[in-house]
Amino acid sequence: MRIAILTSGGDAPGMNAAIRAVVRSAIYKDIEVYGIYEGYEGLIDAKFEKMVEASVADIIQRGGTILRTSRSERFMTEEGFQKALNSLKIFEIDVLIACGGDGTLRGAKKLSEAGVNVIGIPCSIDNDLAYTDYTIGFMTAVKTVTEAVSNIRDTTESHGRANVVEVMGRSCGDIALYSGVSSGAESIIIPEKEFNINEIAEKALIGKNRGKRHHIILMAEGRGSAFDFAKDFENLTGIDTKVTVLGYLQRGGAPSIFDRILASEMGYRAVEEAEHLNSSAIATNDGHIRTMPFEEIYEMKKEFRDDLLEILKTVSI
To answer: Exactly one of 126, 128, 174, 259 is catalytic; which is it?
Structure first.
């Protein structure tokens, strides 16, 4: 039996841990395993390399992906897709394991519909896939934002300022929500909920009047311009307001313990599924690793954690 693994789309901390788990699990089970470099682009161009135990030595703690990644427009064309299928045939790949976010899993679903056995492993710092409680890389991004906010608060408090911290999340506000709770932010602005700038301003002024010298607002990038909001907020409150855009800082860094364990579990399970020549997406639900058919994962709607938002509102008064 022969399997291959690729990482595609945005990189996420924990991808290397997943690669390691797949390669080592496959070798343990006497399965031949190949790495494909640069995602679906590399699949089109047949950038295959046979993996051995040493190929994944000392990578569990590393961010990024040793297989590199890309966003492939060619894969969305008929010509590029057919070249990808040909590459899998030439290398006689029985099962492809694809690690990535929404776009990657949609590509995996397309391959599955074309008759390829594909296992999808969810890797995304946004945590925007509805079918799984957590994606690999999300908790590390939350940790990175939390640590950044702690540093920002030090200087913000010293100067008696407010700071609008822009975090990733075009359509999903989980990074802002979870890191808002963990960092003690006063307010969050997220795609899932409407916000009232007057309410945010009122909270800041109440805090200022009782001697509070900082106000941290986390804003998901998909909610508009952090700079425009900061200007309006400063005009309303008279509080000197700065903006910090964390950007790609959130993608890097060593994966957290949570993500290393999750990636190892999912990688191991992916190889188990590959042995049965299945096509499915790996998920974690209620603390258990499960699988789900590709045709079902996009029928589910992402459930927002209203309970966490209520906790944030309660403890940030």
So the answer is: 126
